[in-house]
Amino acid sequence: MHEEQNQEHWPVWATEPVKIVNPDPDWSEQGLQVIHELRELLLPFKVTEMEHIGSTAIPNLSAKPIIDIMAKLESWDRLEQIVSALQPAGWSYVPPELDGREWRRFLVKVEQDQRKGHLHLMLEHEEHWDQQLLFRNHLRERPELVQQYDALKRKLAMENQHDREAYTDAKTDFVQNVLDAGPS
């Protein structure tokens, strides 16, 4: 496993296996619902934009049944208050040293010890914001890429069932190729 940290005291959801399920047409509506809920919770914190990203934001793509949302912030100044506002709604903060991605702050929505949502907080002008949207939009426009990505994700989920980071890392080349190729 990739994780160097001691997992002995981690919550169950932190080490759950990678499980890909068939596309669910309700994911789009679920994404809108999560954004609505987050807008209410984050209203005092100057969130400038929110987007449904990840595989659940792409029609006809198999995915882990987790709704990914990214939100833009002006700064990290009120991060502690944001985390406090989100915790009662089931969001758990993953510190950057555990997340391994300094460019974002990451929270996981947990229900009955399972991940239901991811919140990727990013600062304005973060290049990963644009990359996430480009990748999502390219796949929405190109069904042949959805089929290729679906097959790859299923294969990698089988190979990396107990290592979420390895699963994510193994998709990097495909994602980069899609970003480099641009729209159809």
Characterise the protein shown here.
By secondary structure, the protein is of the alpha+beta class. The protein has one domain (12-181): Beta Polymerase, domain 2, CATH 3.30.460. The chain has 7 helices and 5 strands. Strands 1-2-5-4-3 form a 5-stranded mixed beta sheet, sandwiched between helices. Helix 4 packs across helix 5 (143-159). It is globular and about 40 Å long. The N and C termini lie far apart (37 Å). Mean pLDDT is 91; it is low at 1-5. Pfam families: GrpB. This is GrpB family protein. It comes from Paenibacillus terrae.
Described by the principal axes of the CA atoms, the overall outline is: globular
Q: State the helix count.
A: 7
**In angstroms, what separates the terminal alpha carbons?**
37 Å
The tally of strands reads 5
Structural class, from secondary structure content? alpha+beta
Q: What is the CATH-assigned architecture?
A: 2-Layer Sandwich
How many structural domains are formed by the residues?
1
CATH superfamily: Beta Polymerase, domain 2
Average predicted confidence as pLDDT: 91
Unreliable residue runs: 1-5
Major sheet: 5 strands, mixed
**What percent of residues are in strands?**
15-25%
CATH topology, by name, is Beta Polymerase, domain 2
Strand order of the largest sheet: 1-2-5-4-3
Q: Please compute the radius of gyration using only Cα atoms.
A: 16 Å
Pfam families: GrpB
Protein name: GrpB family protein
Organism: Paenibacillus terrae
